[in-house]
Design brief:
Elements lengths: L6 E6 L3 H16 L7 E7 L3 E3 L13 E3 L1 H6 L3 E4 L1 E6 L4 E5 L5 E5 L2 E4 L3 E3 L7 H4 E2 L4 H13 L11 E5 L3 H18 L6 E6 L13 H10 L3 E4 L3 E5 L2 E4 L4 E3 L2 E4 L3 E3 L16 E2 L12 E3 L4 E2 L13 H20 L12 E5 L5 E5 L4 E5 H15 L7 H6 L10
Parallel strand pairs: 1-2, 1-9, 2-5, 9-21, 11-18, 12-13, 12-18, 13-14, 20-22
Antiparallel strand pairs: 3-4, 6-7, 7-8, 10-19, 15-16, 16-17, 23-24, 24-25
Helix pairs in contact: 1-7
Keywords: FAD, Flavoprotein, NAD, Oxidoreductase
Organism: Ancylobacter mangrovi
Family: Belongs to the NADH dehydrogenase family.
Length: 407
């Protein structure tokens, strides 16, 4: 009797979307009483860990990771260490770079691209050499080390001034956390300066007019200077030049001005949006490319039927991941898929020592601010976004697509 061949679902990426894709695919496999010998679920990433990326604006970023090896083992997901460098959608194979310059080809029956996003760094003179960021773990560690060494440098306006470029969510959180970080490092209040630069006419332009006065008040309370309606034309080791010709002396310029989908999405022959995200259907398939799903920051996905699309955020990535993993596994198991939807949307923006602001809905209606919002943000950052415990039953139960991030 001929033995049924094993099918393989490969997930690229161990961020929030990749983690939940693995959990959800394993959950469906378990619900359908299918063994790993019949459906192999493989997660590929450089390290078996989740980087808690939404917290990288905080001090001690080296602590902001969570291991995934035990939970993947508990749910029967195969972990493969390496970096995917090539995708052949015709042959349905990926090429993984391993240690010591080795390469390994892996075939797939379904592929979930959960490769995330990266900071957009335009070709501004000096940015690559002198700009810092809180985009990836190594970036945040480098910035933290730099800040810690500032007191050993000769006192000067440049040493004592931090410039954050980009007044979106990441820039606001980095800027509002900075006064407390600098006080802890220098040990003297009033000797340092934080300046926020935003090229649009207002800070947090995407947040809307309702919450904006709260953010502006927090910036004022924390003594953060703002420059709106201005871009950056050049950086060097001791400062930054703005588009109006103003020169700001600073040895610490943090770039937080926009993100793009990771470059691997460019290897998929399909439509992408201006941020490099692959346009997907409601089941998160990439149309016209057999066997490929995209999720998280790699996907442009409609979240409802009234024109809203998932944002490049942890909140959307977790649920997107759960639907992508479920649907990729469902196709291989011959069971119905589930259309992604995420009608509920909240924001909780950290404002450092000034608290936080919590909004609900796409119109960003403010629900609470200050200490109450800060407590909510703290719970999100320290509990909600971390991986489940490596208990098989609990881990699989956490990945029901209809329940993930159901705020």
């Amino acid at each position: 009797m001929e033995t049924e061949m094993q099918k393989r679902l490969v997930i690229i990426g161990a961020g929030f979307a990749g983690m939940y894709a693995a959990l959800s695919a394993a959950r469906l496999r378990d619900n359908e009483n299918v063994s790993p010998e019949k459906l192999d679920i493989v997660l590929v990433s450089p390290e078996p860990r989740l980087v808690i990326r939404p917290r990288l604006y905080e001090p001690n970023p080296q602590t902001l990771t969570a291991p995934l090896g035990d939970v993947l083992e508990a749910i029967g997901v195969t972990y493969m260490r390496g970096t995917v460098e090539a995708i052949d959608t015709q042959a349905q194979t990926i090429e993984i770079a391993l240690a010591k310059a080795e390469r390994h080809a892996v075939s797939y029956d379904r592929l979930v691209l959960a490769t995330g996003s990266c900071l957009f760094r335009p070709p501004i003179p000096g940015l690559a050499e002198h700009g810092f960021s809180v985009d990836q773990l190594d970036d945040a560690i480098k910035l933290d080390h730099h800040l810690q060494t500032l007191p050993q440098r000769p006192a000067s306006p440049a040493r004592n001034t931090v410039v954050v470029v980009g007044g979106g969510f990441t820039g606001i959180e980095a800027a509002t956390e900075m006064p407390a970080r600098l006080r802890a490092i220098f040990g003297v209040e009033g000797t340092t300066r934080v300046i926020l630069v935003e090229r649009n006419g207002t800070v947090v332009p995407d947040l809307g007019p309702g919450p904006r006065p709260i953010v502006e008040a927090a910036l004022s309370t924390l003594g953060i200077d703002t420059r709106v309606g201005l871009g950056v034309t050049a950086l060097d080791a001791s400062g930054v030049t703005l588009s109006n010709g103003e020169r700001i002396e600073s040895e610490t310029v943090i770039w937080a001005a926009g993100i793009r989908a990771a470059p691997l999405t460019e290897q998929i022959p399909a439509e992408r949006d201006r941020s490099g995200r692959l346009v997907v259907d409601r089941e998160l398939r990439v149309p016209g490319v057999s066997g490929v799903f995209a999720t998280g920051d790699a996907a442009k996905a409609a979240s409802d039927d009234i024109g809203n699309y998932a944002l490049m955020s942890c909140q959307h990535a977790t649920r997107l991941g759960a639907f992508a993993g479920n649907n990729a596994a469902a196709e291989l198991l011959g069971v119905p898929t589930s259309p992604y939807h995420q009608e509920a949307y909240v924001t909780c923006l950290d404002l450092g020592a000034a608290g936080a602001v919590f909004t609900r809905g796409w119109d960003r209606k403010v629900e609470f601010v200050g200490d109450k919002a800060k407590a909510y943000k703290r719970e999100i950052n320290t509990v909600w976004i971390y991986p489940p415990q490596p208990d098989r039953t609990a881990a699989l139960a956490s990945a029901d697509p209809e329940q993930v991030t159901n705020l």
